[in-house]
């Protein structure tokens, strides 16, 4: 099977610092892959490398010819002092057919908000409008960077259900960064755990039982807290020696 996007030995540097080393990664049609890892572990940078916004200093990224990517960035600031309806927002920068807009809004579950001011959307509605925006191009792959940030648990769960419906209907692959570990574990085909490199990767079961993952996230419901208490049993000195001898 041909991958939609494939990275080989991809090393990414930002501002003179290597933030991600030797990443081998591929995503196929229709897969849901989630990227987890502590703050600063390179998750957003990985996505930016895969979409071509950051060039690898080593290795390569190959995207399928003509690949359509729908990208929902981690943060998007919309000037709330400007009067701007959802519909007009989706028409920037290119005016689109009303049908295309209403189809994307319907798929994202916010068709009733078409005439609402952007400044009056709830956090969950705002994220859905961002999802609608990413769907306008009928993407082959939807890439979401912490799309449920700021949503409460039911809001986040509803958002993930929406994403699953989108995948079912459009057949697009989904690559997302998430901190909602339980949802991630339930909804992903594959999980990629990062910490400046790929710590471990596989089906949710395999990753959840990997020592590298447990070192990062713990084992029980307290796991999410362990994100910020990052203990590790192997070396993360990116600039120096390689850490190839630990299991990937
Ligand atoms: N423009 C930049 N110049 C230098 N270093 C940067 C730059 N942007 C990010 N970094 C560093 O790169 C590392 C990876 O950042 P990245 O945003 O990819 O992490 P993340 O895993 O997405 O984090 P979070 O969970 O906090 O969003 C961090 O140490 C960050 O400080």
Total count of domains: 1
Succession of helices and strands: EEEHEEHHHEHEHEEHHH
CATH topology: Rossmann fold
> In DSSP terms, counting alpha (H) and pi (I) runs of 4 or more, how many helices?
9
Strand order of the largest sheet: 5-6-7-3-8-9
The CATH superfamily bears the name P-loop containing nucleotide triphosphate hydrolases
Inertia-based shape = globular
**What is the straight-line distance between the termini?**
23 Å
The hetero molecules present are: adenosine-5'-triphosphate
* Residues in helices, as a percent range: 25-40%
Give the overall pLDDT as a whole number: 84
Protein name: Zinc import ATP-binding protein ZnuC
GO biological process, one term: response to zinc ion
GO molecular function: ATP binding; ATP hydrolysis activity
Pfam family, one: ABC_tran
Description of the molecule:
The chain is α/β, with parallel strands linked by helices. It has one domain: Rossmann fold, CATH 3.40.50.300. It contains nine helices and nine strands. It has a six-stranded mixed β-sheet with strand order 5-6-7-3-8-9, with helices on both faces. Strands 2-1-4 form a three-stranded antiparallel β-sheet, with helices on one face. It starts with a strand and ends in a 22-residue tail after the last helix. About 40% of the residues are buried. Adenosine-5'-triphosphate binds next to β2 and α1.
């Amino acid at each position: 099977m041909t991958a939609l996007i494939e990275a080989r030995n991809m090393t990414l540097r930002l501002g003179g610092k290597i933030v991600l080393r030797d990443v081998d990664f591929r995503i196929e049609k229709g897969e849901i892959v989630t990227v987890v890892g502590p703050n600063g572990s390179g998750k957003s940078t990985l996505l930016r490398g895969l979409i071509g916004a950051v060039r690898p200093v080593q290795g390569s990224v190959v995207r399928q010819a003509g690949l359509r990517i729908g990208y929902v960035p981690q943060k998007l600031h919309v000037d709330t002092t400007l009067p701007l309806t959802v519909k007009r927002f989706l028409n920037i920068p290119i005016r689109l057919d009303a049908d295309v807009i209403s189809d994307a809004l319907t798929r994202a579950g916010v068709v009733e908000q078409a005439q609402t001011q952007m400044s009056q959307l709830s956090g969950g509605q705002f994220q859905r409008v961002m999802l609608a925006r990413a769907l306008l191009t009928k993407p082959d792959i939807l890439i979401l960077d912490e799309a449920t940030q700021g949503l409460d648990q039911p809001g986040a769960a509803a958002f993930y259900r929406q994403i699953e419906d989108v995948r079912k209907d459009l057949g697009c692959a989904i690559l997302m960064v998430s901190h909602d570990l339980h949802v991630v574990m339930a909804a992903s085909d594959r999980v990629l755990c990062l910490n400046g490199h790929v710590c471990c990767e596989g089906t949710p079961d395999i990753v959840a039982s990997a020592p590298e993952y447990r070192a990062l996230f713990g084992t029980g419901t307290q796991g999410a807290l362990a994100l910020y208490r990052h203990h590790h049993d192997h070396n993360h000195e990116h600039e120096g020696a390689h850490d190839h001898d630990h299991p990937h």
